[in-house]
Amino acid sequence: MFQWQELLNSRPDVNSEDPDEVAAIKEAEENIGDYKLKSSSDYVVPDHLRMNTEKARIKLVILKELVSECWTLKLKPFNLSSPDMAEKRLCCLYLCAKPRL
């Protein structure tokens, strides 16, 4: 019975707040933003966040350049070396399969 009473006495007050949680809530309120405004009917997207055809086209051009660069720098040399690797593999297989005297 004494342990139970000690446990009940050590329990924090219902109205007390953890300072770490209060700090986390404050930081979230300052940095996350108010999403209720974005769901309202009169919300207008700021100009710097709007997506239009010009921005989309620029993103696609950049993506195409990145894919082309990846092909030129990485995949093309690998594909060119593949026949050499296949030839070396066949030579190795031939040497391994060759009967020993």
Can you tell me about this structure?
With 101 residues, the chain is mostly helical. It has four helices and no strands. The protein has helices spanning 2-10, 19-31, 35-38, 53-97. The longest helix is centred in the last third of the chain and has 45 residues, at 53-97.
Report the C-alpha radius of gyration, rounded.
33 Å
What gap, in angstroms, lies between the N and C termini? 90 Å
Helical percentage: over 70%
Mean pLDDT: 80
Describe this structure in a few short sentences.
This protein has 101 residues and is mostly helical. It contains four helices and no strands.
Structural descriptors:
0% strand, 4 helices, mainly alpha, flat, 101 residues
Topology:
Layout: H1 2-10, H2 19-31, H3 35-38, H4 53-97
